[in-house]
Amino acid sequence: MAKTRRSKKVGCPIEIYASVDDKGDWIIRRVMLDHQNHQPTPMKSKDVPAFRKRNLLDKEKNLGQSGKSSLKFKGHSKENKEEVMLNLSGGDARAMVDYFNKLTADNQNFFHMKRYAERGGLQDIVWVDARSRAAFEEFGDVIVFDATYLTNKYRLLYANFCGVNHHMQTILFGCALLSRETAETYSWLCTTWLNCISGKVSSGKLTNQDPAMRRALKETMKDTTHRWCLWHILQKFPKYLNKHENYEDLKADLENVIYDSSDPVTFEMGWNDVIVHYAVKENANYKWLEDMYDERHGTK
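Predicted structure:
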């Protein structure tokens, strides 16, 4: 039998009370669903101790984030990363290909595909293991497509397809090492990956705002709804808004509106209140924020 206990912090009486009957079945005796003294929202679940853990995407962001401050190797920047070539020596490339060939021979559900440059070197490679293919069948309704640098000696562009399972855990749907960040490369990757997972198309996808990625996804996943990844948008707040005299308060209030709005009407009202309160329209970079607001229902 459950013990009635109010929240010590806010005194919220919400509860589900159940007990076991004579037959050994659990019977719900009392339910209280009305919150008091606070307004919970889905995004606040991150503050619950049980959910305070770093997921796969968080770890990847620590390995290689977008932006010049995250590039640990010298000689390359955000502006010229499109020119970075896949820099695998012959022995390393051969070892990786041999390993993938062995995995494919041992397990028919492991899939990989590669292509070579004109000079004969390995250009791009994508792989999906059996677990990723099975996970996609169950949880592939919405995917996150991300491409970022890893801080290693090869200067590789690493891309992955991820999703979330029923435990709110990040799961992997496939990986790739790419030579360039171009629309053609992304188109090849997406087409190949779709073949890896038997051509099933997700209903939604989240990406950053890379133009090349946008064009490729528009060509290869025409029937999939495309949305921007919120994490990447928030990373641009300092670049466009840090000149505001009350930047920290502005940033905090915008994030509160974004994370804690429970419905579209609440979001619209909260957003407009923040824009007016901080006179954001007078900021030289307001155009960027306005564009993000206009694109909230879809990509251009």
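Summary: The longest strand covers residues 170-178.
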